[in-house]
Write a structure and sequence with these properties.
The structure holds two protein chains of two kinds. Chain A is α/β, with parallel strands linked by helices. Chain A has two domains: about 10-120 and about 220-240, 3-Layer(aba) Sandwich (Peroxisomal Thiolase, Chain A, domain 1); about 145-210 and about 245-400, Peroxisomal Thiolase, Chain A, domain 1 (3-Layer(aba) Sandwich). Helix content of chain A is about 35%, strand content about 20%. In chain A, the strands form two sheets. In chain A, strands 3-2-4-7-1-8-11-10-9 form a nine-stranded mixed beta sheet. Chain A has a two-stranded antiparallel ribbon with strand order 5-6. In chain A, strand 5 (about 205) and strand 6 (about 210) form a beta hairpin. In chain A, helix 3 packs across helix 15 (about 345-360) and helix 6 (about 165-180) crosses helix 12. The longest helix of chain A is centred in the middle third of the chain and has 19 residues, at about 165-180. Chain A is globular. The relative contact order of chain A is 0.20. The termini of chain B are far apart. In chain B, strand 15 (about 365) and strand 16 (about 375) form a beta hairpin. Chain B is about 25% helix and about 30% strand. Chain B has a nine-stranded mixed beta sheet with strand order 5-4-6-7-1-8-13-12-11, sandwiched between helices. In chain B, strands 20-19-18-21-22 form a five-stranded antiparallel beta sheet. Chain B has a three-stranded mixed beta sheet with strand order 3-2-14. Chain B has helices at about 20-25, 50-60, 65, 85-95, 110-120, 145, 195-215, 230-240, 265-275, 310-315, 325-330, 350-355, 355-360; strands spanning about 5-10, 15, 40, 70-75, 100-105, 125-135, 150-160, 165-175, 180, 190, 225-230, 280-285, 290-300, 320, 365, 375, 395, 405-410, 420-430, 435, 450-460, 465-475. Chain B has 13 helices and 22 strands. Chain B folds into two domains: about 5-330, 3-Layer(aba) Sandwich (Peroxisomal Thiolase, Chain A, domain 1), CATH 3.40.47; about 340-365 and about 400-475, no CATH class. Classes of the chains: A alpha/beta, B alpha+beta. Chains A and B meet through helix 4, helix 5, strand 5 and helix 9 of A and helix 12, strand 16, strand 18, strand 19 and strand 20 of B.
Amino acid sequence: MASGIRDKVVILGMGCARFGERWDCGPDDLMLEAFEEATRDAGIERDQLEAAWLGVFYDEQSVSKSALSLAMTLRLPQIPVSRVENLCATGTEALRGAAYAVASGACDIALAMGVEKLKDTGFGGLPERTKGTFEDLWQPGFTPPGAFAQLGAAYAAKHGIAIDELRRAMAHVSVKSHANALHAPKAHLRKAITSDQVLSAPMIAYPLGVLDCCGVSDGAACAIVTTPEMAKSLGRRDAVAIKAMQLVASNGYELSHADWDGAHTPTTRRAATRAYAEAGVKDPSREVSLMEVHDCFSITELVLMEDLGFSAEGRAPTDILDGRYDRDGRNPCQTDGGLKCFGHPVGASGLRMVYEVYNQLLGRAGERQLPSPSLGLTHNLGGIPNRNIASVSLFGLKTL
Amino acid sequence: MSGIQSWGVCIPRLRLSRKTIGAAMGWVNPSLKTARGERSICNWDEDSLTMAVEAARCALPSRAARDSVSTVMLASTTLPFADRSNSTVLASALSLDDSALTLDVTGSQRSATAALAQALSSSGRGHTLVAAADRRLARPGSDQESSYGHGGAAIVVGADEGVAELIAQHHRAADFVDHHRLTDSPFDYSLEERWVREAGWQTLVPDTLQALLTNAQIASKDIAHLVIDAPPALARKIASLAGISENALVDNLAAQCGQTGVGHPLLMLASALERAKAGELVLLVGFGQGVDALLFRATAKIGSHKPSRSVVEALGDRREETEYTRFLSHCGLLPVEFGMRAERDSRTAQTVAWRRHEDIYAFTGGRCTQCGTVQFPRARVCVAPACRQAGEQEPIPLAEKTARIKTFTEDWLAFSPRPPLVYGNVAFAVGGNAFIEFADFAPSEAKVNDEVRFVFRLKDIDRTRGFRRYFWKAAPMNSAAVGS
């Protein structure tokens, strides 16, 4: 039985560009912004990097398909660089590559960079793209909000809850994230909103209004990882260690099998179970101090509260309205505003989540700092409920 | 003697009131303001081919009926493809045996009656499906815009006398140009109505009918049903000239759906057959650069034959289109701004479309030979978590199955020529899930757990390369009247 990577890899430094509509920036500017912060934080020079992973999803959008954009932008010292892509879990995949390299002993210090330059399309929302030569022949011409909106009608039907009641809970998800982002200087959307505003916003894809949807942003985030030993030799006493990284890809069950109810994400459930086991977490709702989940849409976050094992089946709407996931609640969620408000530059999002957990664990989260958090969770849901990549990762403080 | 075995019809669900047309276009043509009734119109994803498929499904409801078909004729003057066998797409959608002879018949409003006559005359290896449909355009403000409808019909014929036996046929070829349309023109050019009536219909048709009745030694007074696709006054005049009782005239459905083009005589024939009693004579007339006249006698089987969807039911399944400009947009006559998302490239990989043509055109899924789990799309390895059997899956046709809505959305962001784009997940009664577009659902109409059927529709239009791709969509079950 494999032992996993728990405590074998620590984060030496992290950086995150300001997210938003960065009309003035190309992907190279964004990567450099994140990288310079991370190297300062890590206290190393670029020549100390031994390998790097680049996560970018929309390769058509100017970053380019290969790893070259990272190597050339950062002028990396002729080291192995790989580009990875796994839908909205892309940033996490970059980190997983770097972490596995360090954990295996293949190298001591590795870089994971995630970037996305989305605002060069000329229109709102995510870029249009082919879904595959066969898929285009039969799959709906869906948009991400429409594909995730599927969770709404199904959840309401499964739990016998009126759609208006569900929408009130969904609205609170957005209100909470907007409130949190007010204290996140690098967040894209920093403006408080009310439930009434969410509920009366124009409909995008029933039952999702425009304020149920996350920001489409430009951004980059990166992490420099190393072994605990190397971190210690560089003078660190405490570090944020990776406790678990688990990832599950749909195998077609949600797309083709009649049994899937459309109201939950089986991949998240499986990834969470494995991640808790890897990290030795028995009761996530007691042990996890904060979480950054894939709140691409309000309904997604609502459903995830059950899939990640926090709310009981059918209880998420009540727990949300009770404030359980607010910053001052029992299980703070999206303390930096999440995808909803911090923004969602696809390839960077997984690493942005880790950036928040990292800063919270180190007590560097400024006005939004939680009192003594010890374990943070990040979660991505790449793709759409019908076929997706789910990742669940856990990070905790480790004394070196 | 050969005869009609079954029939089916398709009238698109959308109806445009002539009042709506008059209100929009009466300024240019005041007579439009007083026009009554409504006409049928295609949704954005319907065309002659999809309507032909729907009518043919109705005429061939069972696998056994489809297996009996060896020839497919598709008659229309508005086929989507000028060079790609439209009738072969029809045969694929019906999942017919690939040994079928398929042919497109076009060029005149008489195409369907001519195809029917030819089908009845040939000895044939098996049954012949004669499907006909038209989606004719008309200039805004023209009389045709108001009088035309969109629709189709299908007749299955065979060597057996069936429900209506062919007694006689007579034809007349005459290059009488009442209207015309060049291959590359969108609209008909119509000549003066009085001349068309008097020099055309009233001259050519009665002569042909007389010749037929004389040859067949049938007395004109014995005709119980006269199918003549002409306005009532003209039809009465022709009946009178041919010595046929006015009471035999079959309603031309102008008030309910308009004149639907090539398929209209067959649609009216279906309407007549639904009322005909055993032994009654039914006379079918086709007009367009000549005349086709076919005389049938209803057999003893007529009473027991129940179409899977009657003309009355098809007419009753209606939803009013209240937006005249949306109708124009669907017809390609109004360049609406659909935003940058409409620029998406809908290129079809023909290699894939051919490799997976059973999946796409016939909507064929797979059934695991080990555990029986139904799945779409068909896969090499079973999707059931407890199975994972690898190998060839048994094909399972899904087009005629029903399903229930598991979940759905109405997406205002996605490009659709008729926003919102409605799509969702449906669970088949036989098992399996499809993530699929919906058709014909109005906003707020879809509900979780509603039962749906599947319809063959346009999926995407590739304007860059001039191609249309088709797939199946989930549609409401209702065949009863639906309000707007």
